[in-house]
Amino acid sequence: MAQKPMISVIIPTLNAEASLPATLTALVPAALEGVVREVIVVDGGSTDHTGMIADHAGADLITTPANRGAQMRAGAHAARHPWLLFLYPDTVLEAGWEREADNFMERVDRGSTRCRAAAFRYALDDEGFAPRTLEGIARLRCALLHMPYGDQGLLISRRHYDEAGGHRPLTAREDVDLIRRIGPRRVRVLSARAISDATRYRRDGYMRGALGNLAPQLAPRAMRT
Question: What is the predicted pLDDT for the residue at 135?
């Protein structure tokens, strides 16, 4: 019997005590099934209880300067397993995500798909017309531009991650930068949802958030380290 693919989960954090517990809890069923073999929290110098939460959950804790791209890269460097799953600390994968992910990884390992990475379907933990509209915009973006964002997670084999050059030390939009190098049409969006914390949208407004999400597509060369 072929061995099931094994995942190292990498979570970059900075003062994430409010959201990190739910993100970690959603990984427990996959850990019990042996799909998730380690969780690496790469902290950028939190002053809250983020480190304590990670430690109590049994995650490996790495401390680096606060730079999300560099944090992702450090986590990938420390990972011990052949598949990498990058998650933001306010992203919660819905129950059963590991079954679809397992099927995708097996297909990639067999060479039966041209896709090299996968993301999850974008969702927000809020009710009403505005969050559903933003989710619809995200689906349209993925359908037309083949460009999922980091809050949808990224599942990729170490081999393909290294071939793409990994994360660059960008302070923002490190997700868009990596997807472009992987090849947008080689990233599949799975049907399982990645549910994001909608606090910032409730605080700043959904319209502003939607425009901010489109900015990397309107000005793709404006990213800076």
Answer: 86
Count of other CB atoms within 10 angstroms of residue 38: 17
SS3 152: helix
| pTM of structure | 0.90
- Rounded to 5 degrees, φ, ψ at 197 are -70, 125
User: What does the block give as tokens for 82?
Assistant: 């052949």
- Which two tokens mark 59? 């995650």
DSSP, res 32:
H
Q: How far apart, in Å, are the Cα atoms of 191 and each of 31, 48, 112, 122, 152?
A: 20, 34, 19, 9, 11
Provide the 8-state DSSP code for 75: H
DSSP state of 150: G
Instruction: Report how far residue 95's alpha carbon sits from residue 103's, in angstroms, rounded to the nearest whole number.
Output: 15
Q: Which among 164, 155, 167 has a CA at the least distance from the CA of 70?
A: 167
Instruction: Quick: pLDDT tens for 120-168.
Output: 999 999 999 888 888 888 888 888 888 899 999 999 999 999 999 999 9
* Tokens found for residue 65: 């300067």
Strands annotated E in 14-116: 36-43, 60-63, 83-86, 91-93
Q: Which helix (H) or strand (E) holds 217?
A: helix 206-218
Count of beta carbons in the 10 Å neighbourhood of residue 36: 21
What token pair was written down for 92?
């919660």
Sign for the pseudo-dihedral over CA of 7, 167, 214, 43: positive
Only one residue has tokens 């990224």, namely: 154
